[in-house]
Design a protein that fits this description.
This protein is mainly α and 273 residues long. It has a domain at 57-228: MetI-like (MetI-like fold, Orthogonal Bundle), CATH 1.10.3720. It is built from twelve helices and no strands. Helix 3 (57-90) packs across helix 10 (217-224), helix 5 (111-125) packs parallel to helix 9 and helix 7 packs antiparallel against helix 8. The protein is globular. 27% of the residues are buried.
Amino acid sequence: MRFRPGKIALLATVVASYLFLYLPILHIGLASFSRNSSFPYPPKWSLDIMTRLFSNSLYQTALGNSLIIGFFSAVLSTALAGAATIGLMRHAGRRAPLFLALFVAPLFVAEVLLGISSLIFNGLFLGLQGNLVSAILANVVHCFSYALLIIATQLYRYDWRLDDAAMVFGASPARTFFEVTLPLIWPGLLGAFIVTFIMAFNNLEISFYLLGATPTLPSAAWGALRYGVKPELYALATCVNLVVFLVLLVMFVLMMTRVVTFGHRPERERSAV
């Protein structure tokens, strides 16, 4: 078999890239379950670091706050983006490019600037102290545009004549949405929810400016770095990575079993079109 220099160079680049990306994750995982976290080779398995992480009250509180921010930010972002996308594609007409430019504008605003501006608006203009509600609303502003783009990819191929046919036969707009539109677009809503949840859950800048001393997982980890990289941070990173890999695995299984497509079509269907 003949190998070309270009293919060898490409293969070497791909291998080096994957090693660069995943070797640190593997090292952190081994350090989380090893007695010697600084050099866990060969690993001597132990759950002491994980036990210390889950018994730490600071991380427990931070996890609860991050889950609250992530969940409610994802729910609001997905609901608002879904309504905006339907209105944009079905009723905006010639003004659609203008509305689209306004909707995607937060994509070009840095998270630090969004956090500072939200802090100034809440503190100086409204006289409100930072809390979970203000942090959720600021994360919704940041995540809204991403959710809109994800849902738009699902609605781009949607046949609106199905809604018209349902209303011709007497269905109300609300019934049409819940019985016709929603069952067809819910994979896009699910994808937008997952992405915005991860974004809000892992966000540091917005929550840092609006919550102050109220901890979240990113702020607690960032604060702990001032005292050096402790073994608990290895365990925390491993837990987050395991959750992300689990979510990706679930999405992959749903796509392979065709329960949810997320816009993916198998090769045999694409060739038949």
